[in-house]
Amino acid sequence: MKYLRPLLCASLFLAPCFYAPISHAESITEVLERSKTIKPPPAPETFPYSYTANFSLDMSEGKEDSIFQAQYKVNPNAPAGERVSVISASSETYHTIFQDHIDGLEREEMTSQKAASDLWCQSADDEDDGSNDLSGLFDNDPPQIIAEDDTQAVLRMPFSKIADSLDLDINIGGEPDKVDDDVNLEEKGVEDKEDNAKKDKAREKANNSAKKTADKFFKRMEAELVIDKPQGRLRNMRMWLPKPMRIMLIAKVKKMDFSISCEPAPNGHLYRGHYGIEMNISALGKKNKMKQVTEIISLEN
Hints:
Layout: H1 4-9, H2 28-35, E1 50-61, E2 64-74, E3 84-89, H3 96-105, H4 112-119, E4 144-148, E5 152-158, H5 196-220, E6 222-228, E7 233-240, E8 245-247, E9 251-264, E10 270-283, E11 286-300
Antiparallel strand pairs: 1-2, 1-11, 2-3, 4-5, 5-6, 6-7, 7-9, 8-9, 9-10, 10-11
């Protein structure tokens, strides 16, 4: 299971999506070309709403199956330790993945500004020069147009084509800039846990390994985007691994599928209303499956 949890820390966040009101009659290529000349308005620096979300987890580890569901409310602008209230849960004991999720929301480091950057689907940086948008999708090796009408266009392409165009935080195989305290540093040749220099070296090695693994996934993944043509905004995104992939010699990823949708908030900006991840991994003779969905069902002022 240790192969699944770092993947889940995989929080996949979109920013910045472009915003460019366009005539319905234009093609998607014209929409994207027009968006190059229109600067996207920044999202607010904070997320001015409390929100209620549903969390569902369906997991099997070997012969053990578990299902966990919860509903919770978050005030991202409240002090640390006072942001999350669990409304209901399918069991008194929270699943570790859900507990990790709400613990992350309660961290001191999860400031109002950081929470906003995770929730908005566009950048809050009004100094953005427009380089982090999707306007150049058709400049080189254009994507495949799966479907198009006056309201939206569905595009498919290798994920590597847009990995640098979106502000994504996808951690595969570890968490950036640190190794969790429960990592067994002895396995990395560190006998003295008080030796900070050795611990830093072990962390750096783990981070480099995680980055290499992530890069391998990015090169093999496919992506599908749904773009709102009248507004010129990205509304849905799916990324998946089309073929099984082996990692760390002992594990094989048979399925990995991420999905995100952006919904309009009362102030007109898009927020990340849905995030889903589904994985199927075999390691050391054990088959592990997981499907996890987080969906914001309401916003409150």
